[in-house]
Design a protein that fits this description.
The protein contains 2 helices and 2 strands. It is of the alpha+beta class. The chain has one domain. It is flat, with a radius of gyration of 17 Å. The N and C termini lie far apart (44 Å).
Amino acid sequence: MSRRASKFRQSELSRIIKCVQSAGLNVMRIEVEPDGKIVVLPGTLSKTFEAEVNEWSSVT
């Protein structure tokens, strides 16, 4: 069984990321669907998420 040809190229993703960043947004997540559809979710981490402590990080 051979692999299918990719429906998108890395250069396309790079171009999309540069466009989103030039608009003053951060790329939070990129989803590439099997049919080739590319979804970009802009955003930033919230302060509460950054400050959240993982209770399991101190378990040894």
